[in-house]
Amino acid sequence: MVKDISFTNSKIKSSRRAAEMRGRNAESVAADFYQQQDFVVLARRLRNAGGELDLVVASETVLAFIEVKARASFSAANEAVTRRQQRRLVAAAELAMADHPDWHRNETRFDVVLIVAGSVVPLVDAFRPDDPT
Fold it and tell me: Which PANTHER family does the record associate with it (predicted)?
C-alpha cells in the first residue's frame, strides 16, 4: 500500500504559511508599539550570517534589537527565547551594527516582545550579551 504524502506535505506547507503570517502580524503590532514610544523602525526581518533580527528600532539614545514572540499563553511566550537563540541574536546584532555604523547609539539593548491574545508585553532589556546563563 502506497501512502499519499501529498496531502501531508500540503498540510505542512499550509501550517508554515499560517505561522509565518502570524509572525508577520505580531511583528507589525510590535513595530507599531515602538513607533508609539517614539522609536523609528530601522529594519524588519534583517538577515545576515549571524541570524535574523525581527525588528531593529532606535530612538535618539537607544538602539534596540527586538525578538517578537506570538504565543497562546504568557508562559509559552516567556520561555520562547533560549540561550542559544540569544547568542544568535547577539551575533546578528553585532554584524548589523558593523554594517550600519550610523545606527550607533549611547545604549544598545535586546528586547523581547510577547504578543499573547492581542496583548503586547515588552520585556525591555530582556537579556544582555554577557549574561552568564
Answer: UPF0102 PROTEIN YRAN
Q: What is the pLDDT of residues 38-51, one digit of tens each?
A: 999 999 999 999 99
Protein fold of 6-127? Trna Endonuclease; Chain: A, domain 1 (3.40.1350)
Q: What is the pLDDT of residue 16?
A: 73
Alpha-carbon span 38 to 118, nearest angstrom: 21
Residues in the chain: 133
Separation between Cα atoms, residue 115 and residue 31, nearest integer Å: 12
E strand map for the chain? 40-48, 51-58, 62-71, 107-116, 119-127
Among 46, 61, 34, which Cα is nearest to 97's? 46
The strand pairing partners of 92, in sequence order, are none
Closest of 127, 45, 121 to residue 86, by C-alpha: 127
Instruction: Determine which of 51-55, 58-62, 77-81 has the lowest per-residue pLDDT on average.
Output: 77-81
Sign of the Cα pseudo-torsion (56, 27, 71, 15, in order): negative
Q: How far apart are CA 70 and CA 122, in angstroms?
A: 12
